[in-house]
Design a protein that fits this description.
By secondary structure, this protein is an alpha+beta fold. The protein has one domain: Nuclear Transport Factor 2, Chain: A, CATH 3.10.450.50. It is built from 4 helices and 8 strands; from the N terminus they run ααββαββββββα. It is globular and about 45 Å long.
Amino acid sequence: MKICIGLAFYCLLCLPASGFAQQDSLVQAEIDAQIWRPFIQAYNSFDADRYNALHTADVLRGGPWGLVTGDAYFQNNISRFAKSKAAGLQRKIAFTFEHRVHQDSVAYEVGYYRVEISEKASNAPITSYGQFHVVLKKVQGGWKIAQDWDAGNLNGERITSDVFMKHAAKGIYEKP
């Protein structure tokens, strides 16, 4: 009898966990479709308007270089993307994720990025790596980046391909 009660209790505990895992998976798929795939496409094509549209109006962007918010961030993107495109640069960004935690209208995600930049398609790209932390908020039914922080070092050590690939088993997001 004790075994039956224990087994029934265990089954009850497992049911909600599988429901949460399924909901997390659905939220991640929604975020991937609304944020990460469009982010990759806009970033790679230097489409500053589309890139800026992925962020809240009061976005906070930070890193070791400092902080920038809202309109200043958007104007910087427009200028930087235009200069890079005019210079004939090509770039390709990819992501891996370490942590993805979500609630109904807010999410916190930590991961790593790889950016390959070349002056021409025929040139070998220069590759850099970093870690990012983002806070996402649901705004008018859609996900937006509210805070974004990144750096190329982690605990004083340069982030390398090894760090990026360590998390690649969870998936590499590189195609829009």
